[in-house]
Amino acid sequence: MTSDESDPTAEHWLSGARAETLAIRAGIDRTAHGEHSEAIFTTSSYVFDSCAEAAARFSGEQGGNVYSRYTNPTVTAFEQRLASLEGAEVAVGTASGMSAILATCMAFLQTGDHVVCSRDVFGSTVGLFEKYLPRMGIGVSFVSLGDLEAWRAAVTPATRLFYCETPSNPICEVADVEALSALARASGARLVVDNCFCTPALQQPLALGADVVIHSATKYLDGQGRMLGGAVLGSGEDMAEVRNMVRTCGPSMSPFNAWVFLKGLETLSLRMSGHCRNALDLAHWLQQQAAVVKVHYAGLPEHPGHHLARRQQQGFGGVLSFELQGGQEAAWRFIDATALMSLTANLGDAKTTIVHPATTTHGRLSAQQRELSGIAPGLVRIAVGLEHLEDIKADCERGFSALAV
Ligand SMILES: *Cc1c(COP(=O)(O)O)cnc(C)c1O
């Protein structure tokens, strides 16, 4: 029965399968060896049977692999599995999340174009948009994620791309993807959503009207902090542009990394449920602590994005932040007193991570920019992992004890 998996005509038994099943079964193309775990194809090029076949492959007349910068069977398996989860026609794997974003910009923008971007996107994304796009004569306006009027006001006749992350990092602001996609469409622009924080297990932006989804596979898709990788997803027509950019310019995904991400996807939905459960419980517990001024997590009913998140997400995710009384000094003292949680800016890992955004991930912003993004000096971000909740709380207790002395 399982041998059906390598028979392309047998794909029907996966049609209509649920996400948990697709995450484990989609994209399998078993070789003649009958391996159960997916094979890793570590080959840079492929052999042709004849000159006629080589010519047909090169011209694109015939499908099949030519060179691993273009396509690779292990990368293809990852792309198909992720595409099935996002409800995308096509996924293109890339070497990192940032190269997915770069490939998207190169595929859809040219000199004279304009981008409207949420202010609260990943730091290197801001770097790409602020430093490198303007060098190519592409203008960028940054706006507040949740302020639809600001997005509307920023649109110019040259606007070709809307770009956002939702929920935002680190204060978990939630964007209305349906409303943004309607505005993008009316403005003649594509809406690109970085779905790194939710993953397809919790949110499918394409179903909400987005045109393109970006992933840093480095985070939850791997789930154990081992690999860098990324992906761009969307329609076949749009992804042909992205694929062409990647195969020509080279930020392609490594087959070994693709294999690790394939294994990561198999446990995605279980892991995301665990992250969500731990984060929600921790958020409620943090709210009860005397030293905590405010907890930012969309799972809390008083969070401004709560109702929207309930509507467009299937869970609230694993990242939360909270503000301590006593500003930066208190935040540093809290973090330095913790022992279990890893002090690192990474997230999406089974290991809980903790960071002080104002002096690390958001350290290059001006004090005024940080204030606009709600990043107070006393803010602490936790990307809640999969350890036992009581042990994570006990570690926070170490932090709170350090504040009391
Ligand atoms: C980490 C991250 C990226 C960049 O991904 P890399 O794999 O590090 O290049 C992009 N967007 C978000 C939201 C991220 O967290």
Q: What keyword list fits this structure?
A:
about 400 residues, binds pyridoxal-5'-phosphate, Aspartate Aminotransferase, domain 1, globular, alpha/beta, five-stranded mixed β-sheet, about 40% helix, Aspartate Aminotransferase, domain 2, disordered N terminus
Written account of the structure:
- This protein has 2 domains: 8-266, Type I PLP-dependent aspartate aminotransferase-like (Major domain) (Aspartate Aminotransferase, domain 2, 3-Layer(aba) Sandwich); 269-403, Alpha-Beta Complex (Aspartate Aminotransferase, domain 1), CATH 3.90.1150.10.
- With 405 residues, it is α/β, with parallel strands linked by helices.
- Helices cover 39% and strands 14% of the residues.
- It is globular, with a radius of gyration of 22 Å.
- Helix 1 (19-25) packs antiparallel against helix 9.
- The strands form 2 sheets. The protein has a 7-stranded mixed beta sheet with strand order 1-7-6-5-4-2-3, sandwiched between helices.
- Helix 5 (123-135) links the parallel strand 2 and strand 3 (139-143).
- It has helices at 19-25, 51-59, 73-86, 97-108, 123-135, 148-154, 177-186, 236-249, 255-266, 268-287, 306-312, 327-337, 367-372, 389-404, and strands spanning 90-94, 114-118, 139-143, 159-165, 190-194, 212-216, 230-234, 292-296, 319-324, 342-343, 353-355, 379-383.
- It binds pyridoxal-5'-phosphate.
- Residues 96-98, 122, 125, 165, 194, 196, 216, 218-219, 228, 230 line the site of pyridoxal-5'-phosphate.
